[in-house]
Design goal:
Blueprint (H helix, E strand, L loop, with lengths): L1 H7 L4 H5 L5 H23 L2 E12 L5 E11 L4 E11 L5 H14 L7 E6 L3 H4 L5 H12 L6 E4 L1 H7 L7 H15 L2 H13 L17 H11 L1 H11 L11 H24 L6 H23 L7 H4 L4 H22 L1 H4 L2 H8 L11 H11 L2 H9 L2 H7 L6 H11 L6 H13 L9 H12 L6 H11 L4
Helix pairs in contact: 3-23, 4-6, 8-10, 10-12, 12-13, 13-15, 22-23
């Protein structure tokens, strides 16, 4: 590294040679940066008027259960902070009480008031959501102890629920052969190389197939699209290898019609999935996308029942499509019902979300009594109307006079602080698996936690102060 730096900046080579890059030095600096970021987060947390937690659990390479906790807080100026809060390692059982003990310890250590906890979002596993002994029940009881009027909003990750909805489509007779086909081609090195060569020789649009991973929500739709586009080349390759009898589905027109339907509906679901992903998203925006998709499903079902394939271009090319139109229409109706059933927790707060995201169009009489007069004042003020159209939502609420709109500001703070998904946790688990991998399995939990905090933070460490602190320690190498 020093040699490379010397080539790029020869005038600074002497300075680079003085930089210590021993493993002890690197470890110490990682620890210092972690401490500085944690300290900065502690300072910000002191000003939170409301905060939410996103929780998810997964095993690392050593089968240690790691509970990731992210915090999303909002202060009086409507500044939103979304940061890695903690990683708790569970060596034994992972019951609801075990998880509660760890979460409680983190909250106490951070000196976060339970009374300001607005929401907890999880992946919906039983040890987290149990009604009687789960983590969420214990959290609600603890919050009630401090503030009997406070109700914590518990949400099941909106992306996870969207992914689970696929099961009602009953397309396993299509999914299993496609995954088997991809695994057959890619599982053996020689066979895989031969397939790539075959695609090159036939000038195919793509140069390879994609693997499907159950962990990655988007992968199935992409795999289906790629296999469909290469189905002619795949059939020819299987014929060449003498394996075409192992996959008779590729010669079955009814199966190919179902495959085409699966390609189109998974493509629509992938579009929704992409919209739901990402950090710093407001829950009202995420739920708006879900509501829009439910309306699209109603439209799709009605059009397919009338043998119209405007939004199903792959299916439209199949001769068997008209004969199966009613079956596909019913499948979409089932999917719509599953979306309505699964997102019931978001429906409970839908009115509050709409009130905060679109206050100018809300009927004051339909709003909670403590907000009615404030809504009328807001909707009657032309200056505030202009601000609403020109400012970001959190900046708009920050601009409201606290003396005039106290309840509206408080409601907005709670809704804007909500976590709609555990996306930040899932993304961080990917980082965990990269850093604590098979050849680096002895990485300690403490250092893994430091690495994850540094990799995910949006806070900027005070590097000048850290550099001086490092110089003062004079550690030997």
């Amino acid at each position: 590294m020093i040699e490379t730096a010397g080539l790029l900046c020869p005038e600074s080579k002497a300075k680079f040679e003085k930089v210590s890059l021993s493993r002890r030095t690197v470890t110490r600096r990682v620890e210092l940066i972690d401490e500085d970021i944690a300290s900065e987060l502690n300072k910000k947390a002191e000003s939170f008027n409301s905060y939410s937690l996103a929780l998810d659990e997964s095993n690392d390479i050593k089968d240690t259960a790691q509970l990731l906790i992210f915090i999303r807080g909002i202060n009086d100026s409507f500044e939103i902070t979304e940061e890695f809060l903690a990683m708790e390692s569970l060596k034994g059982q992972t019951r609801g009480e075990d998880l509660y003990d760890r979460v409680s310890a983190v909250i106490e250590r951070m000196k976060l008031p339970w009374s300001k906890l607005a929401n907890v979002t999880t992946d919906g596993s039983p040890n987290l959501t149990g009604k009687h002994v789960g983590l969420l029940k214990r959290i609600q009881d603890k919050v009630k102890e401090e503030n009997p009027e406070q109700d914590v909003i518990f949400l099941h990750c909106i992306i996870h629920q969207e992914s689970l909805c696929k099961s009602v489509l009953q397309l396993n007779h299509v999914v299993n052969p496609v995954v088997k086909l991809v695994n057959f081609i890619r599982a053996r090195g020689l066979q895989h190389r031969q397939f790539i060569t075959f695609l090159e020789e036939t000038d195919a649009d793509h140069q390879d197939l994609l693997y499907h991973s159950r962990v990655r929500w988007l992968s199935l739709g992409k795999v289906f699209q790629r296999v469909w586009e290469l189905k002619e080349e795949i059939s020819a390759f299987l014929e060449l290898m003498g394996k075409s009898d192992d996959f008779p589905e590729l010669r079955d027109n009814n199966w190919l019609c179902d495959f085409a339907y699966a390609v189109d509906i998974f493509s629509h679901m992938n579009e929704l999935n992409v919209k739901l992903q990402g950090k710093d998203q407001f829950v009202h925006d995420m739920y708006t996308n879900v509501r829009a998709f439910k309306s699209k499903l109603t439209l799709f079902s009605r059009q397919l029942s009338n043998k119209s394939y405007a939004h199903f271009p792959t299916l439209a090319m199949q001769k068997e499509a008209p004969r199966n139109a009613k079956k596909y229409s019913k499948s979409l109706d089932d999917l719509h019902r599953e979306f309505c059933r699964r997102f019931s927790d978001f429906e409970k707060i839908e009115k509050s979300l709409q009130l905060v995201s679109c206050p100018l169009s809300q009927d004051p009489e339909a709003a909670p009594q403590e907000l009615q007069l404030e809504l009328i004042d807001l909707q009657s003020d032309s200056v505030l109307k202009e601000k609403f159209n020109s400012l970001k939502l959190n900046d708009f609420y920050a601009s409201l006079d606290e003396a005039k709109f106290p309840n509206l500001r408080r409601t907005a703070q709670k809704m804007l602080a909500l976590f709609g998904s555990t996306y930040v946790c899932e993304q961080t688990f990917s980082l965990m698996n990269i850093n604590k991998a098979r050849h680096r399995s002895k990485l300690t939990d403490q250092h893994l936690r430091s690495i994850l905090r540094i990799a995910t933070t949006k806070l900027t460490p005070d590097f000048d102060a850290l550099a001086k602190k490092g110089d003062q320690q004079h550690c030997s190498h």
